[in-house]
Amino acid sequence: MHVSESKIQVRYAETDQMGVVYHANYIIWMEVGRTDLIRDLGFNYAKIEQEGIISPVLDVRASYKKSIFYGEQVTVRTWVEKYNGIRIVYGYEVLNDAGEVAVTGQSEHVLANKDTFRPLRIKTAYPEWHEMYERVKKKPE
């Protein structure tokens, strides 16, 4: 399993009046992690968008364990949790400055035609992505 790591400095605008990161910002950070993972694996999401392909979110979940505060630097760890050739589930951990898991999450996506929103079989449309995701996805325990 390949795990990508993204470093993010918590900005003041991402916090509430108590200096705690607002819950919705973790979803944005997960997107940063996902796009960094795709790039780390050698692919370019912007390029497939230029080809008329999008990757809509089908589901997203976050479980909050510890607060993160203004001024901290977080690490977003991202990996391919599940992949079946059409649906991709990405896994996430957001670590605080002390290296503790503050948030865990998952997001589920497909690749789809921008005009029709019809999902694509990744194996057919992007065989190199398919092969890589098969190689790096989390193995069943």
From TrEMBL:
Keyword hit for Hydrolase: yes
Listed InterPro entries: 4-hydroxybenzoyl-CoA_TE, HB-CoA_thioesterase_AS, HotDog_dom_sf, YbgC/YbaW
Keywords tagged on the record: Hydrolase
Gene Ontology MF term list: fatty acyl-CoA hydrolase activity
Alphabetized NCBIfam families for the sequence: YbgC/FadM family acyl-CoA thioesterase
Organism: Bacillus solimangrovi
Similarity field: Belongs to the 4-hydroxybenzoyl-CoA thioesterase family.
Name recorded for this polypeptide: Uncharacterized protein
Database matches in SUPFAM superfamilies: Thioesterase/thiol ester dehydrase-isomerase
Organism placement in taxonomy: Bacteria, Bacillati, Bacillota, Bacilli, Bacillales
Protein's UniProt keywords contain Hydrolase: yes
